Structure formats: structure tokens, C-alpha cells
Amino acid sequence: MLKRSITVLGLAFLMTACGFHLRGTGSTQMALTELNFAARDALSPLSKDVKQSLINNKVAISSSAPFTLYLGLEEDSRRTASFTAGTRSAEYTLTTALNYELRSGNLPALIQDSVAVQRSYAYNQNNVTGSGQEEALLRQEMRRELVMQLMMRLQAITPTQLDSLKSQAERKERAAAEAREAEIRAQQFEEPQQSPILIP
């Protein structure tokens, strides 16, 4: 009994030392400490999960933050992966994807990217209810993994990187505005001037 306890404790210390943690329980150290948060569907479960995950990772959500994390719609799809002998669907592959952007004010998106998760499950024709429940549970698990992937992507982004991207975007905007003004001036200059009508 004592040997078993010592073995279990030894394994626990070993796993802790190598950085092991249960899936979904680890925290992500964010370089970004403040963000504004916006979403195409702010009331969706995914948007709520992302916002809560940011808060859990000590990211302050503030409308006055210099950068905004914007989430597009969660896109779910399902395709047949294999068939039974009677050409009935036997296995489905589920995909959940999310487009996201990091913005600053009215500038074009500084970063545009997406995350996606895939899972497969066997569809039982004799237990449609059970298969539907399995799909719903898989979707929930996929949503959690999607949030984790997004947090890992955000972890790699620093305020310095975003400041640099913001400066580039501002320079492009200024150059585009100057080009538009120059084009307008050129058109005005090229328009023929009408000579005044002389009345005898």
C-alpha cells in the first residue's frame, strides 16, 4: 500500500515537473493586457466563451482599448465521410470554423485570420436520437477547442507588433487619401475653361 502511494505521488510530481496539465485547465499568458471586444453575433455561445476566456487570462475588456478583437460568425458544416453497404451515411465529419480580425479604429484590419476544428463520428441509423446527442456534444467540445486555438493565436501577438501594423495601415491610408486628392486636382485642371460670351 505504501509503495503504491509513493509511486502515485512520484508520478504526480514527475507529470507536474514536465508541465503536464489537464486539457482546458491551463491558462494562457497574454502579451495583450487590454482589448475591445466585438462580434458579428455578440450573444452567441462562442462569443460569450471567447470573452470569458479573455477575462480568465487577465485581458481587460474595454471599449477604450487601442485594439479591437472582432469575431465573425461561427461556421458549422457536416459532410459524409463514409457510407454503409446500403449507401446510407455511416460516418460524418463535422467542421467548425471562425474568422477573426484585430482592428484599430476605422483602419483596415491589422490582422485577419481563422481557426478551425474537425471531428468525425459514427452515425447509427437505429439510434437517431443518440447520434444527434453525440453530434451536439461534439459541437460543444469543438467550440471549446476553437476558443483554445484562438487564445493560442492571440498569445503570440504583442502590442509592439500591432503598433507596427497600425503605423503601416495609417501610412497606406494617408497615401491613398493623397492619391485621391491628386486625382481630383488633375481632373479639375484638365476640364476645359468656357470662354465668356461677349454681347455686342
TrEMBL record:
GO terms for molecular function: lipopolysaccharide binding. One of its GO terms (cellular component) is cell outer membrane. It is a lipid-anchor. PROSITE patterns: PROKAR_LIPOPROTEIN. One of its GO terms (biological process) is lipopolysaccharide transport. The keyword Protein transport does not apply. It is found in: Cell outer membrane. Residues 1-23 form the signal peptide. Gene3D superfamilies: Lipoprotein like domain. Residues 168-184 have a biased composition (Basic and acidic residues). The keyword Membrane applies. Residues 164-200 are annotated as: Disordered. Together with LptD, is involved in the assembly of lipopolysaccharide (LPS) at the surface of the outer membrane. Required for the proper assembly of LptD. Binds LPS and may serve as the LPS recognition site at the outer membrane. This is LPS-assembly lipoprotein LptE. It comes from Denitrificimonas caeni.
